[in-house]
Amino acid sequence: MLARLLLWSILLGLTLAGGLMAHKNGKLAAWDLWFKEWMSGEDQAYSGVRFEVDLVDRINFVRMGARQPLLKMDIELETWLESEFPTMALDDVNALTRIVQDKMPRYLQVSVCTASGPSLRALLDQFHDFSQKTAPEMTHLACALRRSAGGLVTHALLIVGQRLEDFSPEAITASDQEAFFSTCPHCQHPHIVRVSRAQNSLGLECPQCRRTYAVVAADEAGRYRFVNEFLTGYAPPAIFAKDDSRVHELFTIWAAVHANCVYTKDPGSKKESTDAWQTSLDTQRKGRGDCEDSAIFLCDWLLSRGFQARVALGRYGDMGGHAWVVVKVDDKEYLLESTEGRPDPSNPPLVSRVGSRYVPEIMFDRFALYVHSTPGQGWKGDYWSGKVWTRLEPRSLLSRIQSHVAKDQEGKTSSAASHEVRPARREPGLAPFVELEGIPQDAAVWQMPLPQGQEKLGGKPRH
């Protein structure tokens, strides 16, 4: 009896030693996997990564059949979701949708679906109905997984959304989309903006601080650009006498623009749309243009000759939108009309004398846009003050566009069954491209203001 007990003890010791050695060398991995599968009812070889791949494939397979664009994984959204999902409450999907929209303002609309189950394969089946009806305009998705406290249930959150492109003139030109994502350079507020393609000239205003920070316009080919980029560096081969004063040279250029640019409204323009813009070279070749075309023509030439000049977009009295040029020479400010009158050196159009009814909304030169520093501020006739005008370089705007991070919202973790909600849509009209009053539109006949008793010389109507 004692011998038999000793034998069994030796065999048991050898078995334990062998098992310990096998476990140390990884020989029992298959047994561990089998045990975990037996306890949880889940295939342990089926990983979270494989689950996401299969889920995306299922959704895109349906979209391929419907000839819809395939959804892409959004790394930014995925990263945020991985950090936030462990503490998210899943019992209110509408609240989840609002959180996603607040955290990810780049998305025009999102659709959220949650599911819970004992295994990843079970979760995949729960997402079947949702994957059959994603909206055609959706572009990206992200998914996150977490285990319940006991480890017996897996929770999943799937987000499908329409991610917007960053705003830029090139994006407007290349895309048929109406909504874009932008960030205000004044107050850093991220927002969605909408483009009205019936308008060839558009001003972008922040919905929070109400300040304009970009103006774009389309040329005759339909290509959008920032308005200052219409000042292309025009420098015709003109020769000026060496002994000419700067003021005389100013009037010579002004007169040449008048002689070579007949005021003409854009042919075929509709009342509900603004017209296409021209570069200086376009205007010279055609010999015609409307107020902003001739103002660009005049300002571009003056800048090439070293003058301190800007194109101003704004209002003249109650006659509607208009465009003109302001120039500063020897501390004197001149207001030049490019469509009216005839330059008269004996009667220089000083801003202090003729500028009382001109109200500029926006100005620009080749490199920058100038907007009011304070929205709605009264106009006192100062075209050059840094206190009145804020200088913006439009191209630097593009580098400021970034993802917005709102304040963190807390949530309590709880179990949830499968939920589904209709896509929540943001109204991009809250932050639209607005047609600024200062951008030229149809208006009544406009005339150059002249001193009392002096006859008007050679005027042309401006509409």
TrEMBL record:
Signal peptide: none annotated. It holds the Pfam family CEPT76_peptidase. It is found in: Cytoplasm, Cytoskeleton. Keywords: Cytoplasm, Cytoskeleton. The keyword Transcription regulation does not apply. This is CEP76/DRC7 peptidase-like domain-containing protein. InterPro entries: CEPT76/DRC7_peptidase-like_dom (IPR056290), Papain-like_cys_pep_sf (IPR038765). Residues 419-428 have a biased composition (Basic and acidic residues). Residues 275-340 form the CEP76/DRC7 peptidase-like domain. Residues 404-433 are annotated as: Disordered. It comes from Prosthecobacter algae.
